[in-house]
Design goal:
Number of helices of chain A: 11
Number of strands of chain B: 7
Strand order of the largest sheet of chain B: 1-2-3-4-5-7-6
Radius of gyration of chain A: 20 Å
Largest interface: A-B, 34 and 26 residues
Oligomer: heterodimer
Number of helices of chain B: 6
Number of strands of chain A: 5
Structural class of chain A: alpha+beta
Shape of chain A: globular
Largest sheet of chain A: 5 strands, antiparallel
Structural class of chain B: alpha+beta
Strand order of the largest sheet of chain A: 2-1-5-4-3
């Protein structure tokens, strides 16, 4: 592997640089896809890579993060994982695999988990359509360099987005964020519960936990705090993936979301 | 048999976990006289056990601990860098392809082949996970054991003397060492690979739904 890639990764100033490097690296290794994927403590996803934008959106829309055997198999661990070693037997993960096949993500994959500071967690993945023997050979030949590249991506991402390093105290779960966002948009509790497809009782629990996290006296206060701290954004966008996922901005344009 | 268990999964193996932490107390506190802390259960656990390390553990036939070692990635917090930084030749060991190996422990009266079995397990980690080296902290007694089982580290630095001597060393992966260690352990490489697959999964094709 040309050292030049590592030097350029180290010098990356913005996510656009990482995005163009990952495209080059994908082509250099001749694989179908290469993705750097950062998952923050509150489930926020962030990264760069070569997946088709429609697949990224499908992954977010279907909330695959919660059931993805790759994420489950890598989270809080530190050994690289060949996707063939994971448990794909559940109905949910079979559905994910079928969707991934539809977007031609690849029948093989190799994911490298990265443990960063303050509970930061990231994954670096290559996926491809090689057969078993070819894939064995590919991973055997390249895994050490891929591990190195994965860590260079993460170090640069941490540098670029230093301010994003999650602080546990003030992060809301996706459901808490959804609940407060709809309340901020002026919906009543009944409507919010209906939209989130949960009971009012469950909704109350989310609001209460969000209120405690924010140190607010009541719901109105909690909503105001969350707005002020930028934890929720009204006007359509809830806690979807943010960051420079490839094609994210095009998708937003299509949907008319600011 | 050899087990590979992350700290977060240890509660699923209560007997193995308990006997491991008790054996560690016995070895490091009582036999070696190291300044380690025991908790109210008499377990030797330190701050690195709280970082969800990966343990390689020899499980005796009766389900108790026969020997173990503990791995953490050197890009995160490690004992080598935080406590033995003076022994690593000036710069910290920080490389995604180097894992730290600490708390190499053998239960009292353990057969010598258990030490070799553990090294064989370490070799599986290196081979399967693209590692170039382990960096380890070990006591003087281990130098002889490592030599005996055919897997000697390169010593980077040492402090103290006699029983209190502590060394930091680097193990590089080599297929020849794997063969020697497999022979010392009396465990075939095929069996070792089955144990590894039991912990980390066998290779099956996932996306052919």
């Amino acid at each position: 592997m040309p050292e030049e890639f590592l030097v350029r990764l180290e010098q990356a100033q913005a996510f656009e640089d990482l995005q163009s490097l990952i495209l080059e690296l994908r082509d250099y290794y001749g694989v179908s896809h290469m993705v750097y994927h950062w998952v923050s403590a509150n489930g926020e996803q962030y990264g760069c890579g070569t997946y088709p934008p429609d697949w990224v959106q499908t992954y977010i829309d279907k909330d695959y993060l919660r059931i993805d055997p790759v994420v489950i198999g890598c989270y809080q661990r530190f050994h690289p994982v060949d996707w063939r070693r994971l448990d794909w037997s559940s109905k949910a993960s079979r559905a994910l695999a079928a969707d991934a096949a539809r977007f031609e993500i690849g029948s093989q994959g190799y994911s490298i988990p990265i443990r960063g500071p303050n509970g930061q967690f990231a994954l670096f993945t290559v996926s491809d359509h090689r057969d078993d023997l070819e894939w064995d050979e590919f991973t055997r030949e390249n895994q050490r360099n891929l591990i190195l590249i994965a860590h260079y991506f993460n170090n640069s991402a941490l540098m670029i987005e230093r301010g994003r390093t999650p602080t546990a105290a003030k992060s809301l779960s996706p459901r808490e964020t959804d609940a407060l966002t709809f309340l901020a948009m002026g919906y009543g509790r009944g409507q919010v519960a209906e939209m989130l497809e949960i009971s009012e009782h469950t909704l109350r629990a989310y609001i209460e936990s969000a209120r405690l996290k924010l140190g607010a006296n009541n719901t109105t206060h909690a909503v105001a705090r969350a707005l002020a701290e930028g934890l929720i954004i009204t006007g359509g966008a809830t806690n979807g993936a943010v960051g420079n996922w490839p094609g994210r901005y095009e998708l937003q344009g299509k949907q008319g979301v600011a | 048999m050899l087990r590979y268990i992350y700290g977060s999964d240890l509660p699923r193996f209560p007997n193995l976990a308990e006997t491991m932490f008790l054996d560690r107390a016995d070895q490091f506190k009582h036999r070696l006289g190291w300044e380690v802390e025991l908790d109210d259960r008499g377990w030797e656990r330190d701050e690195y056990d709280a970082l969800n390390p990966l343990y390689v553990i020899w499980e005796n036939v009766d389900g108790t601990h026969g020997g173990s070692m503990r791995f953490l990635p050197s890009v995160g917090r490690t004992m080598v860098n935080e406590h033995f930084g003076n022994l690593t030749g000036g710069s910290p060991i920080c490389d995604p392809r180097i894992w730290e190996c600490t708390r190499f422990c053998l239960s009292r009266g353990a057969e010598s082949r258990i030490a070799a079995a553990l090294m064989l397990g370490g070799g599986e980690l290196m081979r399967n996970f693209g590692l170039s080296h382990f960096a380890g902290v070990f006591d003087a007694r281990m130098v002889r054991i490592y030599r005996m089982i055919g897997s000697s580290p390169t010593i980077l630095g040492e402090s103290g003397t006699g029983r209190e001597k502590v060394s930091v060393g680097l193990w590089a992966y080599s297929p020849e060492a794997r063969l020697r260690v497999s022979k010392s352990a009396g465990i075939s490489m095929a069996l070792s690979e089955r144990w590894f697959e039991r912990a980390f999964g066998a290779l099956q094709l996932p996306l052919s739904a």
